[in-house]
């Protein structure tokens, strides 16, 4: 079996990467080491690059259809071989991006001013979409269980919020960004039933689905779908294969009405219904040839998380607590036990540590006493990041 090297350094200079070139404007300081936005320092697998190059060699990039066996086949193959789920072609639909899909479903199934539920901490683009579409954010904080070291839904509160007249949509995130929680089948079923009983539409954003360790622990909402369910699952390869700048996504649903409404919007309202030819080439190669690659990448990510956990135990246990997440390449690190002022910590990470990580408040973290760190990078960079974090807390504790 080919062994892949995830420690290689590839320069992003001249690529206008948001992670590197966008950091100074966002954090207000020069020369920071960035670990914030969710893309990888890791090259897309060679098989995917070869397929894109081959497509480039054709030389014509006109309007392109996704309704063909070279899209459906690989998608079905991936779900079958990775998650043991057999998909029907009629349930699979290409769309411009995951967040486009979330926004479009919101516009279709809710009215202006309606309440949209988010579990907090929440991926920051969800509140942005709610605000941008003039809907109202309704939050239910996840409860952290100290013994199990895991986050859980407050089911009673969730049920109560769903029963409110003004609440019409819940955006579920599985695997969960930023906590790395993966949801059990029992939890998913309960959520789905509560939503259905209360006429609350359910979107499940599963874009991080390929980063679950072990992969067998992932339960997709897709496995619970029944004909006509008011549920839509959106996902893509943007995270898994580092393709965020080759826009694409796909969604899976058995709700024929929403499919028709999204098709109409993509066709007549926004004119975004054709596919990216490069994305289609990438999807085909990734979903037929790159299972080993993503497995090995998960081992690398796990190794980086272990390094962080060991480093915290050895040097930073007075200040930080960290649970290795079962999913994603995003670490959710708490500095609650340091007792330090949150604003001072976030400021010092930038000004003393010279590191750009995402502050908890971005994710509606009540106390702002966490930060999110992206570990999809080389081991050396993670070591450098850890030294910067240590420098920050040693300075603050003086
Ligand atoms: C949960 C989640 N959904 C969606 C996205 C973005 O997806 P897209 O670029 O396809 O809109 C991200 C990116 O970080 C994410 O973490």
- Along the chain, the helix and strand elements come as HHEHHEHEHEEEHEHEEEHHHEHEEEH
pLDDT average, as an integer? Answer: 97
Shape type = globular
Level of helix content? 40-55%
CATH superfamily of the domain at 18-45 and 292-397: Aspartate Aminotransferase, domain 1
Major beta sheet, strand line-up: 2-10-9-8-7-3-4
Number of helices: 13
Oligomer: single chain
Describe this structure in words.
By secondary structure, this protein is of the alpha/beta class. The chain has a domain at 18-45 and 292-397: Aspartate Aminotransferase, domain 1 (Alpha-Beta Complex), CATH 3.90.1150. The protein has 13 helices and 14 strands. The chain has helices at residues 18-21, 23-27, 46-58, 69-83, 98-109, 125-132, 155-163, 185-197, 256-269, 277-289, 291-316, 342-353, 379-396; strands at 33-34, 92-95, 115-120, 136-141, 143-145, 150-152, 167-173, 201-205, 231-235, 249-253, 330-334, 355-356, 358-359, 370-374. The strands form 4 sheets. Strands 2-10-9-8-7-3-4 form a 7-stranded mixed β-sheet, sandwiched between helices. A 3-stranded antiparallel β-sheet has the order 11-14-13, with no helix packed on it. Helix 8 links the parallel strand 7 (167-173) and strand 8. Helix 5 crosses helix 9. The longest helix has 26 residues, at 291-316. It is globular. The chain starts with 17 loop residues before the first helix and ends with a helix. Bound molecules: pyridoxal-5'-phosphate (PLP). The site of pyridoxal-5'-phosphate (PLP) has 13 residues, from helix 5. Belongs to the class-II pyridoxal-phosphate-dependent aminotransferase family. MalY/PatB cystathionine beta-lyase subfamily. Pfam families: Aminotran_1_2. This is cysteine-S-conjugate beta-lyase. Residues 41-389 form the Aminotransferase class I/classII large domain. InterPro entries: Aminotransferase_I/II_large, Class-II_PLP-Dep_Aminotrans, PyrdxlP-dep_Trfase, PyrdxlP-dep_Trfase_major, PyrdxlP-dep_Trfase_small.
């Amino acid at each position: 079996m080919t062994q892949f090297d995830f420690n290689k350094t590839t320069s992003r200079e001249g690529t206008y990467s948001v992670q590197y070139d966008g950091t100074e404007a966002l954090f207000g300081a020069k020369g920071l080491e960035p670990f914030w936005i969710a893309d990888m320092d890791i090259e897309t697998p060679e098989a995917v690059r070869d397929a894109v190059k081959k497509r480039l060699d054709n030389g014509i990039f006109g309007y392109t259809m996704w309704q063909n066996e070279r899209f459906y086949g690989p998608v079905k193959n991936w779900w079958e071989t990775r998650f043991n789920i057999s998909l029907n072609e009629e349930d699979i639909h290409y769309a411009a991006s995951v967040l486009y899909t979330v926004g479009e479903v919101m516009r279709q199934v809710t009215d202006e001013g309606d309440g949209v539920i988010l579990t907090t901490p929440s991926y920051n683009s969800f509140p942005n979409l709610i605000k941008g579409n003039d809907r109202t954010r309704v939050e239910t904080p996840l409860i952290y269980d100290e013994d199990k070291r895991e986050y859980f839904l407050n089911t009673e509160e969730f049920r109560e919020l769903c029963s409110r007249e003004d609440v019409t949509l819940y955006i579920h995130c599985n695997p969960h960004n930023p906590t790395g929680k993966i949801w059990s089948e029992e939890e998913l079923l309960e959520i789905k039933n509560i939503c259905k009983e209360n006429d609350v539409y359910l979107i499940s954003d599963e874009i991080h689905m390929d980063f679950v360790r072990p992969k067998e622990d992932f339960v997709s909402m897709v496995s619970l779908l029944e004909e006509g369910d008011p549920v839509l699952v959106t996902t893509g390869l943007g995270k898994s294969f580092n393709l965020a700048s080759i826009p694409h996504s796909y969604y899976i649903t058995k709700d024929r009405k929403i499919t028709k409404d999204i098709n109409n919007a993509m066709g007549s309202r926004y004119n975004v219904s054709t596919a990216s030819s490069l994305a289609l080439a990438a999807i085909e190669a990734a979903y037929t040839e790159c299972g080993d690659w993503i497995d090995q990448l998960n081992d690398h990510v796990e190794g980086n998380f272990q390094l962080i956990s060991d480093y915290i135990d050895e040097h930073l246990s007075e200040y930080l607590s960290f649970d290795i997440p079962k999913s994603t390449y995003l670490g959710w690190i708490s500095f609650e036990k340091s007792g330090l002022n949150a604003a001072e910590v976030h400021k010092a990470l930038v000004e003393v540590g010279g590191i750009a990580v995402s502050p908890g408040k971005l994710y509606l973290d009540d106390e702002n006493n966490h930060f999110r760190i992206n570990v999809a990078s080389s081991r050396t960079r993670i070591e450098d990041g850890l030294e910067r974090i240590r420098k920050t807390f040693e300075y603050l504790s003086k």
